[in-house]
């Protein structure tokens, strides 16, 4: 069963359990999938689904930060709840130690020596660590290592 099928199944389970928050959050996610399929005229792979989920989580985090600034705690909490529903479908994220170890290997592989080489490292790291580490975390760790 693919990741998308699992999400569709979870929507049905949420409907049966009358869990409206989870149902609505997952429906928003499935509509994002359909939008990409229609716009790009392609069948989504699990990797595509993971990218879309990460994009949706990033958007929710940005919205939650704006709601917090505006003092709209109930809306901020709604965004955080949706993030929690979405994170279930992402692969396990690397710990800081695991991320640092993998990035050290990549730095050695591309022969990076200074901050000028950060672009090379980020290019390789973004591809190899897609789905298991956030781009912002990768960037921060590369800066500290170089």
What is the CATH class of the largest domain?
Mainly Alpha
- Number of helical stretches of at least 4 residues: 7
Domain module tally: 2
The CATH homology group name of the largest domain: Uncharacterised protein YqeY/AIM41, N-terminal domain
Q: Beta-sheet strand percentage?
A: under 5%
CATH architectural category of the largest domain: Orthogonal Bundle
E-strand count: 0
Secondary-structure element sequence? HHHHHHH
Q: Provide the gyration radius in Å.
A: 18 Å
Q: Per the principal axes of the C-alpha atoms, what is the gross shape?
A: globular
- Percent of residues in helices comes to over 70%
Distance between the termini: 41 Å
Largest sheet: none
Low-confidence stretches: none
Could you say what the CATH topology of the largest domain is called? Hypothetical Protein Yqey, Chain: A, domain1
What is the average per-residue confidence, as pLDDT, rounded to a whole number? 88
Quickly give the structural class.
mainly alpha
Task: Describe this protein with a few key phrases.
mainly alpha; Hypothetical Protein Yqey, Chain: A, domain1; 7 helices
Furnish the topology, listing elements before pairings.
Blueprint: H1 3-16, H2 20-40, H3 46-70, H4 73-87, H5 96-110, H6 118-128, H7 135-145
Quick gist of this model?
The chain is an all-alpha fold and about 150 residues long. About 75% of the residues lie in helices and about 0% in strands. It has helices at about 5-15, 20-40, 45-70, 75-85, 95-110, 120-130, 135-145.
